[in-house]
Design a protein that fits this description.
It is built from twelve helices and twelve strands. The chain is of the alpha+beta class. The strands form three sheets. Strands 3, 4, 5, 6, 7 and 8 form a six-stranded antiparallel β-sheet that branches. Strand 6 and strand 7 form a beta hairpin. The relative contact order is 0.07.
Length: 328
Amino acid sequence: MPRSSSQKIKLLALLRIFHEDSDQEHFLTVPELVEKLTQQGISVERKSVYNDIEALKSLGYDIDHVSNKGYRLLHRAFELAELKLLVDAVQSSRFIPARKSSQLIEKLERLTSRYQASSLQRQVYVAGRVKSMNQSIYYNIDTIHAAVSRNRRITFRYFKYNLYRQKIFRHGGALYEVSPFALLRSDENYYLIAYDQQHSEIRHYRVDKMSSITITDHRRCGDEAYQSTDLGEYARLHFGMFRGREADVTLRCENGMADILLDRFGEQLSMVPDGEDHFTTSVRLAVSPQFFGWLCGLGGGIVITGPDWVRQAFLSHLEQVKTQYGDV
């Protein structure tokens, strides 16, 4: 590399060396810096390195010097603890496919030194995490955000998997057209909250089950319906984000269930004592098999007391499950 060209990139090369090869515990001496620059074809004198370090410091880079050890780059855009938190979030997120998780983590590793990057690698192995099979979800989210910012509707195909991991498209593969408004994360999945003009209501769709998302030229509609929707309440109503008939369901609960009820429905939940060992409460929710499954998982500590149609639906659900097991 010609000397004039190498001198132009020397400061950037020096900064990259500090970024990759130094941190709080690892130092670089001036001879080591000269050697690393020389290996990159950059001819340099020791005196100029001192000047370059001062130039980087004047630009705001936190380069520290410790006698008998050398120089190191201290503060970066992200602290190591913050990067570990981000790595764990990426790895544990169900909606991010495994391959995309690895790619994102590799990029996060480049935000710190090679020494600290190895500690991030040890964070990668989180056992038992189920990842999405849809490799397009990362781009689906980006497309949805773009449609929202442009105030445009989207079309897509919606699918589920069969036992052979094949996509089975709903409605024979017909296109859905909706007005996207927000993304909501619930039970480790991302959902699109959108206005369905065909049914004149707000609906939700799992983003990893959407395919062929296209932004249309049609302006969004349903803004009034969306503005009147409380997303937090919407997520609370729909157990596992499954749709169902909404109702005010009254429950009689053992006192030991109070913590579980507050966890699920929020601290504003009204609980009225009913004898020494029980309390009653009323919650508005979408009645679905997922709600019934939640109740079954709690054993006999909670009993539905109304409305009657919800009690009967729950009993029918239990009978159906019992029938599947025959006389066992």
